[in-house]
Design goal:
The structure is a homodimer. Chain A has 14 helices and seven strands. The first copy, chain A, is α/β, with parallel strands linked by helices. Chain A folds into three domains: 55 residues, no CATH class; 207 residues, P-loop containing nucleotide triphosphate hydrolases (Rossmann fold, 3-Layer(aba) Sandwich), CATH 3.40.50.300; 42 residues, no CATH class. Chain A starts with 5 loop residues before the first helix and ends with a helix.
Chain lengths: 319, 319
Amino acid sequence: MGGAGTGEAVTGGASTDELAERVQAGDQRALARVISLIESGDPRVRSVMKALAPSVSGARVIGLTGAPGAGKSTVTSALVKAFRGAGERVAVLAVDPSSPFSGGALLGDRVRMQGHATDSGVFIRSMASRGQLGGLAAATPQGVRAMDAAGFGVILIETVGVGQAEVEIASAADSTIVLVVPGMGDSIQAAKAGVLEVADVLVVNKADRPDTQATVRDLRNMIALSSAEWKPPIVTTVGTSGEGIDDLVRQLDRHWEWLGTGGERERRRLGRARDEVTALAFGVVRERLAVPDELAARVAAGETGPLEAAAELLASTGF
Amino acid sequence: MGGAGTGEAVTGGASTDELAERVQAGDQRALARVISLIESGDPRVRSVMKALAPSVSGARVIGLTGAPGAGKSTVTSALVKAFRGAGERVAVLAVDPSSPFSGGALLGDRVRMQGHATDSGVFIRSMASRGQLGGLAAATPQGVRAMDAAGFGVILIETVGVGQAEVEIASAADSTIVLVVPGMGDSIQAAKAGVLEVADVLVVNKADRPDTQATVRDLRNMIALSSAEWKPPIVTTVGTSGEGIDDLVRQLDRHWEWLGTGGERERRRLGRARDEVTALAFGVVRERLAVPDELAARVAAGETGPLEAAAELLASTGF
């Protein structure tokens, strides 16, 4: 394939097969390059991912989400330490949902996690959406798969959790942790509607604050109303001191075991594959569905209804 | 068209033409019904919107966004009062970006605005996404158009602003207000990257707090770096007392005038029509692009790459 200019700079002059081989050998620089290719929507991703496919062995993927200020980075960092202590190689994918409102926050998080920078059993990368095919909904599972192929047994996806995009990204995980902070009445209230839908484990972080027990009680009352088979356990942690992290790991293990029974793990992975393919197909459609100026002008002038215009657009593409 | 069961309940037994006529006559109950139809993705929306089209006269649309707790409802309410004072009929569309994390917050906002409930020149509705074709990106402009057809000259779109979805919704407006609060270091930092992209007017609300001037200075420094033709003015307000609202209205008027010069208003409306048609076309595509179980299973097992699977899926639909 070769590739010239920036392309060659990204692959370091290596062919995509060579690059895949180096990832499979655990070369972190090669892995970082592959994630850059995914991030930039490089067409060579297709052949790299194909070459990596045989090495993908089903790493355990843990999602971690929560509002800004909930302490995601410190908890992630503490989890990295705990899983390293258990002999796992751990990769962290910090996903920036590419909202203009949240840009930059995750970069800061990355810096705070530099405590693991010298450990070759830890790999940390952030990923933003720069116009990949299918957006982050497609790029996240690709990044996870590349990390898996590089031999990381535990992959943590960290993302700022407030909107639908973040929920979609969290759905790429086997187990999802939702972080809340005591005394943030607003955020708890805002989280109520959706928290049970995505949380496999609920963490009340910064649990040295006064309102901790009230928050735990609120969450417990919410959970009591759920009819889901898996009731998310509530863990209290102090990310900065590591307090409660052992318990969090225990609850994650318990969830991982539960996933293995009754086929839930396979069902989730099937759903994940379906979401990824849909997102990629959507990316292709998005590129082709450009509204002609003339059609937009007719809609803006009220001459053509928007639904009629959409039908016209689709007919013109043969869909 | 008629319609039976729930459908008839929603249209009140009226034909879509009758419903449209009542909206055009300014009947608020009919308008509420049309928005319910839009919200639920009812297929009759198409004929209702077609019948309403001749009455759409280009109302002034103002978007208002900001993080939870920024005081969006009080500022919206104060703006309603100010525009009413200027003799305008004002409609408010409180858009819930349908994130499971933010559900419920806007309902509370609605209640807080009941001060206008007895004024027939004010119409307030919230709208959530319940599976409309194209999601809220398509539903929002439809709701705006219905309000416009009902004779409201000023339409305020209020939405919780943190993610991409909210930015898309704000883009349905002629002028977008971004609300920040003094002393919320995190939120300012988080907002930095995107705030200049979407804000036509920046409001520092709760300006009776101590850090107000520091926040204004921060924002001013950000704006100084922008090369955009329109530099967003910064207004300080206290929504609860109405302080600064007159200045906000003046700045909105200034922006509205600026939009009229150089064709910017038309450019924005064209862009808006384009976005709406794209969102609707996407909704149709989404319904048709279902990944078959067998294909998802092959991807989950690593037998077929996701990009190959996406290509296969698209080929099977003839796209």
